[in-house]
């Protein structure tokens, strides 16, 4: 069993961060703790007739990759301009069908990335715990690797790697 007392949690995080960053740092004792249960699911379609879903109503996933809010905002943006075009008579109802067709694959990608991020955050795999300091050292000390990882991770977290989102911003 793992000690989940506030002091024990702070000690574990301090140990992991010191090893990973190679710096003397201390994680303060948290004021409260909550047990996180990993859940992951999403809808098959983001539109059924006149009903549309976005954000947390469309997909439930770990917060580990920090993409939930960004994805929900992107979905709201995507749906809003389409609804406006149809409502004002500038497009037919078929445009609304593209909302689900475009956003469901992005949701699937999101669930895949959050699953990987959750695994890394949990660090329950002893090999991952041993490898983390080595991986951090390589990323920290090899600029081309650091830049590539930063672009990939930050592009995914920000949602700017999404071709659909980028084309929307360029066309509106």
Quaternary organization? single chain
**Uncertain spans:** 164-172
Sequence of secondary-structure elements: HEEEEHHHHH
Strand order within the widest beta sheet = 1-4
Q: Report the helical percentage.
A: 55-70%
Shape: elongated
CA gyration radius, whole angstroms: 20 Å
What does this 3D model show about the protein?
This protein is mainly alpha-helical and 172 residues long. Helix content is 62%, strand content 5%. It is built from six helices and four strands. The strands form two sheets. The protein has a two-stranded antiparallel ribbon. A two-stranded antiparallel sheet has the order 2-3. A hairpin with a 2-residue loop joins strand 2 and strand 3. Helix 1 packs across helix 4, helix 2 runs antiparallel to helix 3 and helix 4 packs across helix 5. It is elongated, with a radius of gyration of 20 Å. The N and C termini lie far apart (54 Å). 14% of the residues are buried. The C terminus is likely disordered.
Question: Which terms would index this structure?
Answer:
two-stranded antiparallel ribbon, mainly alpha, 6 helices, single chain, 172 residues
Write the layout of secondary structure elements.
Elements: H1 6-21, E1 41-42, E2 47-48, E3 51-52, E4 59-60, H2 68-87, H3 94-122, H4 126-141, H5 143-158, H6 163-171
Can I get a quick summary?
62% of the residues lie in helices and 5% in strands. The protein is built from six helices and four strands; from the N terminus they run H-E-E-E-E-H-H-H-H-H.
């Amino acid at each position: 069993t793992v000690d989940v007392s506030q002091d024990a949690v702070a000690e574990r995080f301090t140990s992991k961060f010191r090893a990973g960053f190679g710096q003397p740092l201390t994680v303060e004792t948290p004021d409260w703790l909550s047990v996180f249960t990993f859940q992951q699911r999403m809808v098959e379609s983001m539109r059924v007739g006149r009903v549309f879903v976005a954000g947390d109503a469309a997909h439930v996933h770990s917060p580990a990759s920090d993409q939930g809010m960004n994805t929900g905002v992107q979905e709201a943006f995507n749906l809003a301009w389409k609804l406006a075009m149809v409502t004002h008579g500038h497009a037919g109802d078929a445009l609304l069908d593209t909302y689900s067709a475009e956003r469901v694959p992005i949701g699937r990608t999101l669930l895949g990335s959050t699953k990987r991020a959750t695994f890394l955050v949990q660090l329950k795999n002893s090999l991952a715990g041993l490898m983390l300091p080595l991986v951090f050292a390589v990323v920290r000390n090899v600029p081309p690797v650091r830049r590539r990882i930063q672009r990939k991770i930050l592009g995914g977290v920000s949602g700017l790697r999404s071709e659909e989102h980028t084309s929307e911003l360029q066309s509106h």
